[in-house]
């Protein structure tokens, strides 16, 4: 039963013909409620960042969209129909966190990518030419074609991520959920993944990407969803990924440095630089010293 709670947020998702999460709550079997009344909507052709502290419910949100954990209340719809219908049609691809994968499982790179085709195959999982072509194209697109006969466990962290991205591509997922795709990858691989995601966005797909790299969010994400056991803010990056919302989402975890005056200038310039970070990639905000802030990398996002 969906009983209105005292102080419950009026967060019903608005619009969007892509992914829509409406007032979902998830309680694990040990009684822990990881998400309560979480709502947001994201349209097609967008990249959305999912940010929040450790344990704020990002993976739980992915798992609830995938139907891996039951909803205590609320609903998820995809392209206007219930998520379970979209899942049956293989419209949703999930790139899990590295820790969730057993890398000792003896399987070749090309077999991992072929798993993305399973939903398109018949009961006997007979591979057809179209499946092999999809695997070849996906491996090529992520630059891993030369590694196809390698054991997945032998690859570097960044290479493994690219293989799982290839699996999502081979699946032809229209909604792609990526759980921390940049953790443990070098800057070059991160750039390659971002370029790939931008290409997928331009094809009209929906990407939801959890990340602790706050600095790269305004550069490549059109939208952001900030969570802490519920959705605190969701919308266009320029309007949502603000210092005030980040402080709300990260609380004491976020480290903040404000540089100004003689620390930054050798004249009377009043401008300031605010650096917010919970991780290795800081988010930099330039201010004029009169409380007017401008995020360093905001120009990269698109209005969608
Ligand atoms: N299977 C489970 N059973 C019970 N509690 C769980 C389970 N999985 C997660 N939790 C709890 O739910 C909360 C949210 O976890 P979740 O993994 O969704 O967080 P997260 O935002 O993805 O964290 P991180 O940034 O560390 O990956 C945490 O308090 C976690 O301990």
TrEMBL record:
Q: Which PROSITE patterns match?
A: ABC_TRANSPORTER_1, ABC_TRANSPORTER_2
Q: Where is the ABC transporter domain?
A: 19-254
Transmembrane portions of the chain: none
Alphabetical list of Pfam families matching this protein: ABC_tran
Nucleotide-binding keyword on record: yes
Could you tell me which SUPFAM superfamilies the record lists for this protein?
A: P-loop containing nucleoside triphosphate hydrolases
Write out the GO MF terms: ATP binding
Keywords in alphabetical order, please. Answer: ATP-binding, Ion transport, Nucleotide-binding, Transport, Zinc, Zinc transport
> Entry's InterPro entries?
AAA+_ATPase, ABC_transporter-like_ATP-bd, ABC_transporter-like_CS, Metal_Ion_Import_ABC, P-loop_NTPase
| Record family assignment | Belongs to the ABC transporter superfamily.
PANTHER family for the chain: IRON TRANSPORT SYSTEM ATP-BINDING PROTEIN HI_0361-RELATED, METAL TRANSPORT SYSTEM ATP-BINDING PROTEIN TM_0124-RELATED
Q: What is this protein called?
A: Manganese/iron ABC transporter ATP-binding protein
